[in-house]
Amino acid sequence: MTPEPTSPPSVHLGLRSRLIAAFALGALTLSVLMGAIAYFTTRHTLIVEKQDAALHQAYANAALLRNALSNNVPSISDVVASLDTGSGTTSLLNDHEQWFSTSLSVSRTSIPPSARQVVEAGSVATQTAPGSGAPNLIVGVPIPAVHSAYYLLYDLTDLQHTLRVLLIALGAAAAATTLLGAVVGLIASRRTMRPLTEVSQAAVSIAEGDLSTRLPVDRWDPDLSGLTSSFNAMVDRLEDRIDRDARFTSDVSHELRSPLTTLSASLGVLEANRSSLDDRSRQALDLMAGDLRRFQRLVTDLLEISRIDADSDTLALEEVRAGELVRRSVAQASSVLPAMDAPAVHIADEAERAILEVDKRRFERVMGNLLENALAYAGGATSVDVDVSGDGSHVEVSVTDEGTGIEPGERERIFDRFYRGSTSGRRGNSEGSGLGLALVAEHVRRQHGTVRVVDNPDATGTVFIVSLPIVVATPLTDEEEGA
Amino acid sequence: MAERILIVEDDERIRSSMRLSFESEGYLVSEAASGEEALDEFSASPPDLVLVDLMLPGMDGFEACRAIRASSAVPIIMVTARNDTNDVVAGLEAGADDYVTKPFVPKELAARIRALLRRARSDETESSAVKEFGDLVLLEDEGVLKHRDGTEVHCTRTEFRLLAELAAHPNKVLSREQLLESVWGYDYFGDGRLVDVHVRRLRTKIERDPALPEHLVTVRGMGYKLVS
Fold first, then answer.
1. In the A/B pair of chains, how many CB contacts fall below 8 A?
2. Higher pLDDT, B92 or A195
3. Cα(A396)–Cα(A391) distance, rounded to whole angstroms?
4. Among residues A363, A370, A303, A359, which one has the least CA distance to residue A337?
5. Which pairing describes strands A98-101 and A89-95: parallel, antiparallel, or unpaired?
6. Which residues of B, range 99-128, sit inside 8 Å of A by Cβ?
7. Largest Cα–Cα distance in chain A?
8. Hey, CA dihedral for B12, B17, B18, B24, is it positive or negative?
9. A276 touches B at CB < 8 Å
10. Which of A43, A158, A373, B80 is most buried by its number of CB atoms within 10 A?
11. Cβ distance A363 to A371 under 8 Å?
């Protein structure tokens, strides 16, 4: 069975991994190349040295043997045994097919036939041949004067051992170099990536709305300073654009103030003389008055939200008791929402005296907008409950209506500017600007609170819950109030 | 006799519409288009209340406010284009008694005007109580605040009334809302900043160290009280 040919997996290595891999691969290639050169050079040198030494010795021994043989020494084997060969070498003499060896383990069979042929033809043979254990370097020198041949067997165990150690050392060095390459790659990639990381962090912070974020420009690297300056230029333009948009909204609203003031003062005069008008004129007046209020409201809300956008809206924070704050705000808000029954306000004991740090005017806007919203979505119902509870760290103000409720899918969008909810249950003649809940969200956020929407657990309808941090949970005793 | 309102406003159309509106409510109206004109008009026919826009060409509303306040205790309402705390506080510190923000609701402005005029009238029939605290003597019938050595402490009518109100309930905490109601005559319209700014101004006049008040003290989360 042959394995299915598999297409190479589409590996998408990150920039960092690719850099590390490239460095490691480069280091590996380089170190293997260097190692190979070092190994083969060393090996060659060592072998040549050995060969030279062996050759010299073989010549010398051959000369000794020739003298001995031509003088007809009584014991050839004694002469052979007396040859100075050094450790790891064996001498072998072939005297008319009579073999004399200095080692029992070496005999005529140790000499490869090819070497013998060369020597018997009258030349010097240098050859490597497998011996017992390690290979031998064999040098054969013919001694033609006495029709003999001398062989010097050089044991290469040492050499081989040396080479093996060298190979291991070079391999280890290559591995270490590769690892080092990878580490260098890692460091280099980090350094290379750092500006990218900075860019991405900056982009995140800009996306989160902090348009003052810029990259540091004191980069000496010309490649990076290009990126930095173009990034910063982009944010400059973006900020400029957003500023211009915000300014435009603010300018438009400002310009609308004066004619609105004139309109509303003049309309006030007409309304004061309402009784002297005929029916149709009165209807027209009421329409004008209603829409003028709406217009005024829209301009006020636009100005308020553009001030928040431009960060020029300073909070007037003061410390107030949650109970009184909510009661007052609700009373004030419901006084200007005539279609509404005064909401029932329940304040839990633990929240009553808790001190919050709020901007009262803005908190009143929050309550007013929530009550107005409750009314708008109430689908005819006019009863709204306001409950205040506290847990030691936060006060939660819940505005509960019994209207048609808000679809779960709509909940996150109702705090968007100009988001108009589904028409079901919405009263037709609402004076809302479409910015009411957006302002609620902004004001609450700026007072370090949160606002969320849940289903009314007891009936149909919705609960808006504003949570604000408590500054002091149990402030004063009664006598301190000086009552 | 009908009360006179001086409108200081550079936008001619707004001025005309306000004149119409005030006249239909039975007030006499004088107009001025600039700060300089306002001062002339002020001395030509002294009004019972001044409505001054803060953004005026030349001498701005703040300066006009200060100039009028230097010679008179007439109620001043400033009209701001912005509801920024900075503008409001600066206007109140220039001597205004109250403020409205453009575009204002005519009924709301009318209510404020009525409250301030009512108060100004009632000032003329003040009780003859004399209250003392610390080194200070408050002569309500004369509307005068003095040190015990006789040197007078100059303060505006609103400041005086605020102090008198606190002095009427020594050692009792009065909330900003209570003070707005009794001193300014407002129930719903009031802004706590009105009280805060006037308290701050009063402290610079009656406290040895305004940063560490001994008489006019803040009660956290509650309001203010006068320690006798």
1. 106
2. B92
3. 8
4. A370
5. antiparallel
6. 102-107, 110
7. 165
8. positive
9. no
10. A373
11. no
